[in-house]
Design brief:
Alpha-Beta Plaits, 5 domains, five-stranded antiparallel beta sheet, binds flavin-adenine dinucleotide
Length: about 475
């Protein structure tokens, strides 16, 4: 186990056990180790893990943590990519895995009320049974939580047509650092009374409040869907096609994989597809676009026709339409496999989720290619091209000092280019600890000051997820 955090004060431990029950406070080394990691690949064991059952218990835990000046780190499923759920300063992991109730699905008003520990895919399946749809679909949806999605402002492929988590959160029950419970927002389609605290808390990464309940907007489930894959001879042509397609159609998703990403998952694609593209475009494809159209059957048929007509004039592009639901699932499974398959290239990964205006994707991808050639490291790009959100993956061996330095230089060069292209450093993963040092490059000094003051106002004792977003920058 890596460096040990200071042991928890025995009086605090006893008081926590009183609040949530003895069995809901874990302090054994193996239990703490289970909550020491997240998707960032780092490890920081907490002093204790506490499992509250409701917002009242969260409030009592926060009051105690304030009294004993102990950090509290809210945690959903621990799939975050930026170290947001790590106990970097020890303290208490507040694991929301017992709060998994779908409290209500209101069909008439198209609203769901859920506890934060509900798994995203389980909510999607539950509302689907009511012919409703909850669109935000991070690739981790089978195992991440709605609470984590709200705290990170998660997105997914469907963002191109439907938007991201933020666009579906109507209101929240949230617990402040002093134990006050607030109810933000509305459960109506509109509402403009007072400042929009809901939007402030979405994406706040557990640094301002703990989210105890979420009211979500739903939409009618689309009746039909068609999944299609485009294999392209030329990388820049593929990235250029993104804007061209979106000028003509509104696909539900428009994902992109470069040659390396495609190579990682090519064996998961329908048999014969890569061979067909070799015959038709004379080489292995340099990039792939994965596109889904949805709506009424007539809308889907019309848009499919339009797309095919448009592609007739595009040389070196192969269109493959999924024959049925199973094949569509196969294509999506290949797309979702890119991230884990990356470790075939190197044992470690620096994965960023930068966003650029989508017409500038070719510029960003060209920069990544140049950096790969210059450093000799595998650097590849894939992601949600429809909204300009590109995952730039720098693969390295962290035990190799030269690779570590080259990777960090490449990462800084990517950040610089993204900001030159008028993009943003994170579209969906957030800041956590991994981008804390970069925040000043994007946010102007006056806004930074305002944000830091908000953090101090919400959490004067700096107990809620300290060190996240702000690094060492906010101290009370
Ligand atoms: C294979 C893979 C694919 C992924 N694909 C995507 C993708 O397509 N799109 C995307 O956006 N992300 C993606 N992610 C990242 C991750 O799944 C998301 O950020 C997700 O929203 C995190 O949810 P979680 O429940 O795991 O949260 P955690 O990792 O547990 O926590 C994340 C942050 O939220 C805070 N938090 C969690 N719950 C609460 C709460 N109730 N109240 C206050 N703060 C809270 C934590 O303190 C932490 O700062 C992917 C990750 C993996 C491993």
């Amino acid at each position: 186990m890596p460096s040990q955090p200071p042991a928890i004060d025995s009086r605090l431990l006893a008081a926590l056990q009183q609040v949530v029950g003895k069995k809901q406070v874990a302090t054994a080394p193996e239990e703490r180790l289970s909550y020491a990691y997240d998707g960032s690949g780092r490890e920081y064991p907490p002093a204790a893990v506490v499992f509250p059952a409701n917002s009242d218990q969260i409030a009592a835990v926060l009051r105690l943590a304030g009294k004993y000046r102990t950090p509290v780190i809210p945690r959903g499923a621990g799939t975050g990519m930026c170290g947001g759920a790590l106990a970097t300063r020890g303290g208490i992991i507040l694991a929301l895995s017992r709060m998994t109730k779908i409290v209500e699905i209101d069909e008439d008003n198209q609203v769901a009320v859920v506890q934060p520990g509900v798994i995203t895919a389980e909510l999607q399946a539950a509302v689907r049974r009511h012919d409703l749809y909850y669109p935000p679909d991070p690739a981790s949806r089978a195992f991440c939580t709605i609470g984590g999605n709200v705290a990170c402002g998660a997105g997914g492929p469907a963002a191109v047509k439907y938007g991201v988590t933020r666009d579906y959160v109507l209101g929240l029950t949230a617990v402040l650092a002093n134990g006050d419970i607030i109810h933000t927002g509305v459960r109506t389609a509109k509402g403009v009374v007072g400042y929009d605290l809901t939007r402030l808390l979405v994406g706040s990464e557990g640094t301002l409040a703990v989210i105890g309940e979420i009211t979500l907007r739903l939409v009618p489930a689309p009746a039909a869907k068609q999944t299609m894959l485009l294999l392209c001879r030329d990388l820049l042509q593929a990235t250029g096609l993104v804007s061209a397609i979106l000028r003509r159609l509104t696909p539900a998703t428009l994902e992109y994989l470069d040659r390396t990403a495609l190579g990682l998952v090519a064996d998961r694609l329908p048999t014969g597809l890569i061979e067909r593209s070799q015959e038709q475009i004379g080489q292995n494809p340099a990039a792939m676009l994965l596109l889904e159209l949805d709506g009424s059957p007539e809308e889907v048929a019309g848009q499919t026709r339009q797309l095919k007509e448009f592609l007739q004039d595009q040389q070196g592009v192969i269109l493959h339409a999924a024959a049925d639901h199973e094949e569509a699932e196969q294509l999506w499974a290949a797309r979702r496999a890119v991230s884990p398959a990356a470790f075939k290239l190197r044992p470690h990964k620096i994965s960023d989720d930068v966003v650029v205006p989508r017409s500038r994707i070719p510029d960003l991808v060209a920069t990544a290619e140049q950096l790969a050639a210059g450093t000799g490291l595998p650097i590849f790009t894939f992601g949600h091209a429809g909204d300009g959100n590109i995952h730039v993956n720098i693969m390295l061996d962290r035990d190799n000092e030269q690779e570590r330095r080259a990777a960090e230089t490449a990462r800084q060069a990517i950040y610089k280019r993204v900001l030159e292209l008028r993009g943003t450093l994170s579209g969906e993963h957030g800041v956590g600890i991994s981008k804390a040092a970069a925040i000043t490059a994007e946010v102007d000094p006056a806004s930074l000051e305002l944000m830091k003051n908000l953090k101090k106002l919400f959490d004067p004792g700096n107990i809620l997820n300290p060190g996240k977003i702000w690094g060492e920058g906010v101290r009370s």
